[in-house]
Design a protein that fits this description.
The chain has 405 residues and is of the alpha/beta class. It has 3 domains: 130 residues, 4'-phosphopantetheinyl transferase domain (Ribosomal Protein L22, Chain A, Alpha-Beta Complex), CATH 3.90.470.20; 47 residues, no CATH class; 195 residues, no CATH class. Helices cover 45% and strands 21% of the residues. It contains 17 helices and 14 strands. The strands form 4 sheets. Strands 6-14-13-7-10-8-9 form a 7-stranded mixed β-sheet, sandwiched between helices. It has a 3-stranded antiparallel β-sheet with strand order 1-5-4. Helix 8 crosses helix 10 and helix 16 crosses helix 17. The chain is globular.
């Protein structure tokens, strides 16, 4: 059978006896029931005679959805409560997923889960099926992949590390070609940006959830912006953050020097011209602490390999990876909020820069363990973002250089 056919035929079916569900609801406290059903599900079910049948249908939907991902359910990555049912404007059932379940769907390249519900006087049934995400590849992406395969082995190897066993090889090849297309667009946009008017730049870039970053900055401790090489980070930097002239001079980027030196000098000049400071990742800890104490916003590109001197080994997509420990160290010692930020390119060619809620600080009596746990949490956030738009990440980078723990 064609593996693509298997991917498109992913389906789960479940039937629940209403009497069994009635006993389950009766035996659970409201708090326990709230951990299984969302507040919207409980509200939609009402309090009338049809409540138990309605909840039974929703429970069957959760079971049907979970059967789409037996491995993740068995490992405890997701659970029934990560799936909930709501009604759309036409009254049809729609599945909503938690952030954990969304990451699972993204790794399987599933755009959404469709569901059909029904019930009789004695039982409720649900059928859930996965809607595959379509990877569109521009012709120049295929051309570059085949004719100018720069680091193609690294790209494919990294993609297989993340998606191998989750999607067929044919889809991995499509993602690789889509990445090469992104690389072409990235370079063209990089060249085009300096010649764009301010009005055109603002129309080109949409900013989401910026109030999160503004609230965090209002605490007066500065901010650590956790990000990576997502979308066109050069465009999001200049065209996105540049929309806030009041914050000019407050942003400082921690990054590695590029090769060749001429390119690094050009990027540094362009960054500073746009009103942003730059810091090297090696030997800048004191400067970063001073900047944060003054209320600065330090942007930390977190998705590159870190050697033993600068990093620790923690999992990245389930495999050991050298990861920078300085973000966790700074957050633990200063209490500075760590705010995830990332960008992506929309199908129409516009760009989005989005900020997320600050990540909770994980404390532990053992400082080494606290650093490890927080660093792993930062990697998990990078994983989640990467899976949303995988073709717009730097697959050419050798992220997994660690061979053992």
């Amino acid at each position: 059978m064609n593996p693509d056919d298997v991917r498109g035929a992913r389906c789960g079916i479940d039937t629940v006896e209403i009497a069994r569900l009635e006993k389950l609801v009766r035996d659970k406290t409201p708090e326990e029931l709230g951990r299984l059903f969302s507040q919207l599900e409980l509200q939609d079910a009402g309090n009338g005679p049809g409540r138990t049948a309605s909840l039974a249908a929703r429970f069957a939907a959760k079971e049907a959805c979970s059967k789409l991902f037996p491995r993740e359910i068995a490992l405890g990555v997701i659970e029934l409560a990560d799936f909930s049912t709501r009604r759309d404007a036409y009254g049809a059932p729609v599945i909503e997923v938690s952030p954990s379940a969304r990451a699972v769907l993204d790794r399987h390249r599933i755009a959404a889960i469709r569901v059909s519900l029904t019930h009789t006087d004695t039982s409720a049934s649900a059928i859930a099926w996965a809607e595959p995400r379509v990877t569109k590849v521009a012709w120049f992406g295929r051309l570059l992949y085949h004719l100018f395969p720069y680091r193609r082995g690294v790209v494919l190897g990294n993609l297989r590390r993340v998606f191998g066993g989750y999607i067929p090889e044919s889809e991995i090849l499509k993602l690789a070609q889509a990445y090469y297309a992104h690389y072409v667009r990235f370079l063209l946009e990089f060249i085009r940006l300096p010649f764009m008017s301010e009005a055109r730049r603002q129309a080109w870039m949409r900013i989401e959830n910026v109030e999160v970053a503004l609230r965090a900055h209002a605490r007066g401790k500065g901010i650590l912006l956790l990000t990576g090489h997502f979308g066109n980070f050069e465009v999001s930097t200049v065209a996105g953050i540049g929309q806030f002239p009041g914050y000019r001079g407050l942003f400082h980027f921690v990054r590695r020097p590029l090769k060749p030196k001429l390119l690094n000098d050009f990027i540094t000049w362009r960054t500073r011209k746009a009103g942003f400071g730059t810091l090297t990742k090696r030997g800048s800890l004191e400067a970063i602490l001073d900047l944060l104490a003054s209320g600065a916003i330090v942007v930390y590109v977190f998705d590159q390999h870190a050697g033993k001197g600068n990093g620790i080994t923690v999992d990245f997509f389930g495999q050991p990876a050298g990861t920078f420990k300085s973000v966790a160290l700074i957050a633990l010692s200063t209490g500075v909020p760590v705010v995830p930020a990332y960008s992506w390119r929309e199908p129409d060619g516009s760009h989005v820069l989005r900020f997320e809620e600050p990540l909770p600080l994980i404390e532990n009596e053992n400082i080494g363990e606290a650093i490890r746990r927080n660093t792993r949490a930062y990697n998990q956030e990078i994983e989640r973002i990467l899976l949303r738009y995988p073709e717009q990440w730097i697959w050419m980078h050798r992220r997994w250089k660690v061979t053992g723990r």
